[in-house]
């Protein structure tokens, strides 16, 4: 498997096509299908199986610009190109990637969680809270999985890329950093397959 991080729309298309193929042929999917408590059709349609594509139609440049205006930031290049390739994605493990129109600031979308992690005795989490307040929430959990994929708006590099985080607060762990959105998805792909 090619583990280099995709950057351009063409590279994202190849990466996501490979991800779809690996997922559809994976032990992970077979385990999900064998579980009587999981309805695989909720995240994997017959049309998706036949097309061998877990994503959606690409977002338009106008859609991405409108989201950037609403959020008050320019999205990092790798994530922008992902959205221009597939506006969201089904089944990144237990998570789905939101469509451009659905992403928002973590502090607004999950204020209750930040409040609960700000209480007495949780001082060890102070630095993570500062970071989370400037993160975009770009994922949703399947059946209350409790995980998050995030992009940190104040931690960009010279190429305009932002650090990305995978966070499972129910596990008691700190958010796991990655150099970029593409590095995060590459890591998840390697873990799953």
Structure, explained:
The mean pLDDT is about 90. The chain is of the alpha+beta class. The protein has one domain (about 10-190): SMI1/KNR4-like (3-Layer(aba) Sandwich). Helices cover about 40% and strands about 15% of the residues. Helix 1 (about 10-25) crosses helix 5. It has nine helices and eight strands. Strand 1 (about 90) and strand 2 form a beta hairpin. The strands form two sheets. Strands 3-4-6-7-8 form a five-stranded antiparallel β-sheet. It has a three-stranded antiparallel β-sheet with strand order 1-2-5, with helices on one face. The chain is globular, with a radius of gyration of 17 Å. The chain starts with 8 loop residues before the first helix and ends with a helix.
What is the secondary structure topology, with strand pairs?
Blueprint: H1 9-24, H2 27-34, H3 46-51, H4 61-71, H5 77-85, E1 89-92, E2 95-97, E3 104-105, H6 106-109, H7 111-116, H8 126-132, E4 135-137, E5 139-141, E6 148-156, E7 162-167, E8 176-178, H9 181-192
């Amino acid at each position: 498997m090619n583990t280099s991080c995709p950057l351009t729309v063409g590279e994202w298309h190849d990466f996501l096509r490979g991800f779809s193929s690996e997922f559809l042929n994976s032990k992970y999917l077979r385990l999900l299908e064998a579980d009587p408590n999981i309805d695989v059709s909720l995240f994997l349609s017959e049309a998706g199986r036949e097309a061998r594509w877990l994503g959606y139609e690409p977002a338009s440049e106008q859609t991405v610009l409108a989201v950037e205006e609403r959020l008050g930031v320019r999205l990092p290049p790798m994530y922008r190109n992902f959205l221009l390739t597939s506006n969201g994605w089904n089944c990144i493990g237990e998570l789905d990637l939101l469509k451009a129109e659905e992403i928002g600031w973590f502090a607004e979308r999950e204020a209750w969680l930040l409040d609960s992690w700000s209480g007495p005795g949780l001082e060890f989490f102070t630095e993570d809270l500062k970071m989370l307040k400037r993160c975009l929430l770009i994922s949703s959990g399947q059946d209350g999985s409790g995980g998050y994929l995030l992009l940190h708006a104040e931690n960009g590099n010279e190429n305009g890329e932002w650090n990305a985080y995978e966070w499972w607060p129910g596990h008691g762990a700190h958010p796991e950093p990655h150099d970029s959105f593409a590095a995060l998805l590459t890591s998840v792909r390697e873990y799953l397959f």
